[in-house]
Amino acid sequence: MAISADNHTPDATGERYAHVIVIGAGLSGIAAAVKLSRGGITDFLLLEKADRVGGTWRENTYPGCAVDIPSPIYSFSFNPNPGWSRNFVGQPELLSYIEDTVDKFHLAPALRFGTELLEAVWSEERRRWLLETSRGRFAAQHVIFASGLLHEPVIPSLPGLDGFPGEMFHSARWNHDVDLTGKRVAVIGTGCSAIQLVPEIQPLVHRLYVFQRTAAWVMPRLDFRVPRAVQRLFRSVPVTQRLFRGICDGFLKALALVVRRASVARLLTPVGKRILKRQVPDPELRARLTPDFTIGCKRLLLSNTYLPALTRPNVQLVPHALAGADGRELIAANGERVEADVIIFGSGFELRHPPIAERIRGRDGRLLSEAWTTSSPEAYRATTLPAIPNGYLLLGPNIVMYNSLLALAETQLDYIVDAIRTARDRGIDALEIRPEPFRSFNDEVQRGLASTVYNNGGCTSVYLDEKGKNFVTWPWSTKRLRNDLARFDIENYATTLAER
Predict the structure, then answer these.
(1) Within the chain, how many helices (H) and strands (E) appear?
(2) Is residue 233 in a domain?
(3) Are 383 and 295 within one domain?
């Protein structure tokens, strides 16, 4: 279906209007555009601050960057790719797939590159969103905020770092001008990015120091090259690819079911320890790498090469957080010192204070970040909020589980598209979740999380905010999420009819 170009030129005041505006052209933003178009909503724009689509898969170019969810699932449901080269593809191949999707679904007319959202303000008078951007003002009836979870890199503020004479950068902002060959390199953090880049740079560097605040459970990554014959089979008999995707999805659902309950997840501890013993023969190093919390309390890390890389002669595990720097000397929390030429931060992303919340001002005039400061980040079914009419968050609070984030976003989008179509068909100017169902849902979420491994696994994770409240994970099954979002429940929303 063709995308409408009507009303996308500035009016006399310089304002440009679209019925729906999507913020961000990463995976979830591209999915939003396709879902809108296929749902018969063609008057929309995608605003992207960069000069290229891709989101986190455009930004992250570190060595070894790849998906940690099987490729058949980490792909658009409406655009299955029979040509994946591996079960866990690398960043370049995934970015190419995203760009191919834009071409295949003819999304270019809707894209506005170099257009960064500065502030989104709901106008009660006009019953529209007014968007101030780096390229002027836009207005929209509905706004889908698809800025992503893995967006704002975190670099800790530590004493002496400003005086470090070598190179420093975050894994998500990899400096390709820095040659690591023969250098003393420190990697700070042992999360999803670090376990991918450490094995890649280990053979290059003279000395590699890995600062580990907390040991993490590492499980094998079931990766393999997909033979050309299998790719041809997927192309010629699509049902075989759907079957393989179903198998991968079933495995993830089973994993989520097992690790969700802390009492069940503890049964996996012997398995994790056996894998660790097989890959790390040295008992002293193995002890430092053995977590003291239940599997699943933090996100499982998948790698076949990370643990073996730590056993190499030029690698030293520093089993403490980085506390500061004194010239080239890096100081660990226990006082241990090492000298480095380069610091690479694998310290994750800002989840507790998402930058997009500082740019959304609702009907009551408050920034979303202000509302989330007084009460932890919350949303109704991870999607809508009181005082934010016609505004929709993709991958909002309490939606993460052991599944593809893209699949979760697509589930939300079915709900969002239904909401926008319902408003259009019924002559509704504004939809806003009512306080009662909002409160009831979020209270139920917290009750559901009480017995999960995320809350009771014995760890302190990014799932918990400063108040100790879990604002990230979904306590139930994927099926429950899909059922909750299968139909737009207008009865739980306050509505304002269009004036005639």
Answers:
(1) 15, 20
(2) no
(3) no
Spatial distance between the Cα atoms of 448 and 234, rounded to a whole number of angstroms:
40
CB contact at 8 A, 446 and 469: yes
Mind listing the pLDDT tens digit for each residue in 290-327? Answer: 999 999 999 889 999 999 999 999 999 999 999 999 99
CATH number of 293's domain = 3.50.50.60
**What is the tens place of the pLDDT at every residue in 113-165?**
999 999 999 999 999 999 999 999 999 999 999 998 777 888 889 999 999 99
Does residue 188 sit in the same domain as residue 168? yes
**Do 355 and 340 sit in the same domain of this protein?**
no
> Measuring CA to CA, which residue among 181, 187, 229 is closest to residue 208?
187
CA distances from 218 to 192, 302, 383, 498 (A): 10, 6, 32, 55
**End position of a domain, from candidates 323, 345, 367:** 345
CA distance to 5, 106, 205, 237, 433, per residue, from 288 (Å): 59, 52, 23, 49, 48
* Residue after which a domain boundary falls, among 283, 312, 345: 345
Counting the structural domains of the chain, the total is 2
Q: Which of 180, 206, 216, 204 is nearest to 348 (CA)?
A: 216
Reference 204, options 102, 386, 414, 344; nearest CA is 344
Statement to judge: residues 166 and 307 lie in one domain: yes
Beta carbons within 10 angstroms of residue 34's beta carbon: 21
Is position 310 within any domain? yes
- Owning domain of residue 99: 16-152+350-497
Q: Which of 353, 357, 317 is nearest to 336 (CA)?
A: 317
Q: At what angle do helices 228-236 and 238-260 cross, to 10 degrees?
A: 100
Alpha carbons 364 and 378: distance in angstroms, whole number: 17
Q: Phi and psi (nearest 5°) for 94?
A: -70, -40
Q: Name, in order, each residue with C-beta under 8 angstroms of 365's C-beta and a sequence gap of 6 or more.
A: none
Cβ proximity of 144 and 22 under 8 Å: yes
pLDDT per residue over 31-53, tens digit each?
A: 999 999 999 999 999 999 999 99
| Local confidence band at 3 (pLDDT 50, 70, 90 cut-offs) | low
Segment 54-106, tens digit of pLDDT: 999 999 999 999 999 999 999 999 999 999 999 999 999 999 999 999 999 99
Cα(87)–Cα(221) distance, rounded to whole angstroms? 9
Residue 186 and residue 148 share a domain? no
**Model pLDDT, residue 186:** 98
- Does the predicted TM-score (pTM) go above 0.85? yes
What is the pLDDT, as a whole number, of residue 294? 93
In a domain, 235, yes or no: no
11 belongs to a structural domain: no
200 in the same domain as 176: yes
Which tokens sit at 373?
Answer: 């400061």
- Whether 377 and 425 map to the same domain: the answer is yes
Half-sphere exposure of 136 (CA within 13 A, CB side): 14
Same domain, 312 and 200: yes
